[in-house]
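FAQ

Q: What does a record look like?
A: Structure on top, sequence underneath. For example:
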C-alpha cells in the first residue's frame, strides 16, 4: 500500500516515497513533504546540474549548492538550469 503526502512542490496529495531518501532531518522532511513524482523530477534536474556544471560530489561547496537547489526546487523557487539546455518535448 502506498502512502500519500501533501506535496510541497505540487500542493496536492500524491503518492509519497517508500523511505527517506537522505539520512537525518533533511531526509525525514523530504519523506514527509515530497511526492515520488517531485523526487523523480528532482533526481533528473540534479543529474543534469552535476553533469552540465561539472560538479564533484566530494566537494563540500558542490554538495551545499545542490542542497540549496533541492530546497528551492521543492519550494517552487527559481532553480539553476544548464545554459543552453532545452528539455525534450513530447513530439
Amino acid at each position: 500500500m502506498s502512502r500519500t503526502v501533501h506535496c510541497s512542490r505540487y500542493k496536492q496529495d500524491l503518492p509519497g516515497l517508500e523511505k527517506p531518501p537522505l539520512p537525518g532531518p533533511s531526509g525525514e522532511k523530504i519523506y514527509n513533504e515530497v511526492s515520488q513524482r517531485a523526487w523523480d523530477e528532482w533526481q533528473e534536474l540534479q543529474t543534469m546540474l552535476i553533469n552540465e556544471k561539472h560538479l564533484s560530489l566530494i566537494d563540500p561547496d558542490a554538495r551545499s549548492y545542490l542542497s540549496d537547489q533541492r530546497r528551492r526546487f521543492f519550494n517552487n523557487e527559481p532553480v539553476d538550469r544548464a545554459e543552453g539546455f532545452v528539455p525534450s518535448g513530447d513530439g
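Q: Is there anything notable about this one?
A: The longest strand covers residues 4-6.
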